[in-house]
Amino acid sequence: MGRIRDFFINSVSFIKDKFHKEKNDFKVSTVVLGYNGGKYLRKRLESIINQSLKPYEIIYLDDASTDDSLKIAKSILKKSKIKHKIIVNKKNMGCGSQIIKGLNTAKGDFIWFTEQDDYSSIAFLTNIRKLLADSAVNLAFCKSEPLDVVYRKLSGYPSYSELPNEDYLIDGSEQIESLLCVRNTILDLSSAVFRKAALEGIETYISKCKIFYDWIMYAYVLKSGKVGYCSKVLNYHLRHPDSIMGRNRQNPLFYEDVLTVKNFIVENFKLSVEKLQEMLDEVKTDYESCGCIGSNSDNISEHPFLGRKYNDFKEKVFRKIAQITTGNSDFKEK
After folding, report:
1. Radius of gyration in angstroms for the set of CA atoms belonging to the chain, rounded to a whole number
2. Would you say 87 and 160 are in contact if contact means Cβ atoms under 8 Å apart?
3. Residue 305 burial (C-beta neighbours within 10 Å; 0-12, 13-18, 19+)
């Protein structure tokens, strides 16, 4: 009986040790990007703290908020058993700077950037972990549901219809070609977790963006490796006029960022002629549809400085198309 008891005890101990090791192997640094988001912050932080699979650490970055955000963050985080750090800027530095700071501060092997006005299902990390178990996966994300400011479900976001209704694990280049080169279909940064090592060197590219930090990050980590997608709705993000997108939809910086990301994609990925043409056409039609502050023309080519950037991108696309179809890199638009 003693031998059986010892065997049972050792077996249980082995299982516990293995489970504990597996839990510790998935070290996720959660970076919360905060600025004057006090009215959303409690729901955001509690959805992180209450994850069924706990993050390794929580890093709250306050970008010189003037509301009660910092007070709320301190109150909630001090009650948590999760290791945390609060870093406060004396002056507002902007989202890009905060992402870079979070990346340099994080100690985990994976990094989950969360925006203050989003929240997640408590099963978010549990499901994302399954995708990141493959060491070749650099990016894992889930389906995200848009809500209004009182947390009611919104509809009418066409990019979501492009995502499939089943999970998948594919090469990053396939994700870019099928779903990320024309427009950003991963519409919420909080729905994604990155392998931190894959983000090495990203700072230069983030610094070039003012709005589409997330899109350039997705493209950057998918230059190599795989992407995993969970089709469950595990993330919820708010759409409101005070968001970065809400404030900047007609800002020249919006189109400048689109061109920055698309230039990066054209330079780093092999794309079909059809997709290259679609990438170009989308910039033109989007500008025609939404317009741009400071310009009366609906033709992006006529914009004082965007016109030059768009025409440079157009030339690059035509050269790529020429290389594919004729082998002649000097191809010009007819």
Report:
1. 22
2. no
3. exposed
32 sits in which H/E element: strand 28-34
Q: Count H helices, E strands: the chain?
A: 12, 9
CB 26 within 8 A of CB 53: yes
Distance CA 282, CA 183 (A): 8
CATH 3.90.550.10 range(s) for the chain read 11-245
* Distance between CA atoms of residues 213 and 303, nearest Å: 24
Please state the φ and ψ torsions of residue 124, each to the nearest 5 degrees: -55, -60
| Residue 154 and residue 197 in contact, taking contact as beta carbons nearer than 8 Å | no
Q: In whole angstroms, what is the distance from residue 200 CA to residue 109 CA? A: 12
| Superfamily in which the 11-245 domain is placed by CATH | Spore Coat Polysaccharide Biosynthesis Protein SpsA; Chain A (3.90.550.10)
pLDDT, tens digit, 9 for 90 and up, residues 118-144: 999 999 999 999 999 999 999 999 999
Q: What's 229-291 look like in SS3?
A: EEEEEEEEEECCCCCHHHHHCCCHHHHHHHHHHHHHHHHHCCCCHHHHHHHHHHHHHHHHHHC
Structure confidence by residue, pLDDT tens digits, 153-182: 887 665 556 888 999 999 999 999 999 999
Q: pTM score, two decimals?
A: 0.89
What is the three-class DSSP state of 183? coil
Under 8 Å CB-to-CB from 20, ≥6 apart: which residues? none
| Measured distance CA(256)–CA(212) in Å, rounded | 10
